Amino acid sequence: MFHLNGSAFSCGAVIAEFDPFHEGHAYLLSKIRSSNDAVIVIQSGNYVQRGSSSIMRKHMRAKSAVMGGADLVLELPVPYCMAGAQRFAFGGVAIADKLGICDELWFGSECGDVNELSRIADALLTEQYAMLLRAQLDSGATFAKARENALTAICNIDGKTLSSPNNILAIEYIYQLKMLKSNIVPRTVTRLGDSHGSEDVHSTYPSSSALRKSLFSGDDSRLLPFVRDIWEQEKADMRAPMSLKNAENAFLHALRSMSPKELAQIYEADTGIAYRIVDCANNADSIDTLYATLSTKQYTDARLRRACLAAFLGIKASDLAAEPEFTRVLAFNDTGRTVLKALSETSKINVNVKMADGDASDVSLKADRISSLLFPKIASASFDFTCSPIYLRGTHK
User: Fold this and answer.
1) Reported pTM
2) CB of 43 closer than 8 Å to CB of 49
3) Is the pLDDT of residue 23 over 60?
C-alpha cells in the first residue's frame, strides 16, 4: 500500500498466463478491484507452464488484460513462466513481494477456501511432510503423486483437493508467501467455468484450453470481443497463432545436438529423462511424434514437455534457483502509470519500462530471441526488444 494525495492506495496482484484472456479471468480481476484501488498482473512471457509457447505474444495478452480489468501488467520472465507449479509460484510471488506495494495476492481455486488452502500449505513446512514425501519418492511415485499422498495423510483430505490444478498452484502461492515471510495477504475465488484443461468450447465459460483448441481450428467466435479484435489483427500481421511447431526443425535440432550428460543439467530433466529425450528426438520426425514416444507412466507429460522446451531454450535447473532479478512492463493504463511512479520508490526489483539487451540474463535474452521463430512468419530476433509497453489511456471504474 502507498499513499496518493494523502490517501491510502491499495494494490491487489494476480499471477497469470491469460492464454488467452477469457470471462473467468475478467471475473477474477473484477473481484480484485472490489477491494483494491489498483490491479497488478504478473503475466507469463512468451512461454507457458504446459511446456509450450503461448498462443499469442505477451504484449498482446497484456493488452487484453488491461482492457479486461487490469491496470498494470508486468512480465514473469523466463525461465519461471514455463516452470512447474513450485518454481512458477516462486518466481511470481517473489516479484509481487519485491514490488513493495502489493497488499493482496489473488488466485482462482477449485476449493474456494483460503483457510483450507493455507492449512495445507502449512503442512508443506513440516518435517513429517518431508519424511513422507521421501518415502513416496523412494517407492517410485512421481513427484506430483508423492506430494499428493503425503499431504493427504497429514491433512486428512481427499486426493481430489490436491490433484486439482488451480488448488495446486494456490497452495504453492501461499507456501511461497510463508517462506518469504511476506505481508501480502492471500485471497481466493472459486474458479468460474469449466475445469482447467477442459476442451469443451461450447461451455458457458470455456477454459483457455478449449479456446486454444478452437483458435487453432480457425474459430475465434468464443473469444471476448476485444480479445477477438486483437487476435484477428495479430493473425493479419502473421504474429499468431504462436506455436513450437512453427520452429519444429530448430526444436528437434536443438534436442538432437545435446548429449545425455548435457541434457541432465537441463531444468525438469534427470539422467533417465535425458537418455529418453535423446533417444526419442533422434528418431522423431515431428514434435507430435516426439511427445507420443516420450510419454511414460514414470514422468508426467507436462514435465517431459517442459524438459524438452528447457533444452530448446537452454534453461538449466540452476537458472531457477535464485529469485528473479527483473521484471518488464508490458501494458498499463493511467492508474498503472501512477503505480509505476510509486514503484520507483518502493520496488526492490528492477522494473524495466524498456528492456535493453544488457538488462536481461543470458537465458532470458536467448529465449526471447527464439520466440520470434514461433510466429507463422519469422520475425527479427530483436522483435521482442523493440516492442514498447502498451499504454491504454483511461482508468477502470
Assistant:
1) 0.94
2) no
3) yes
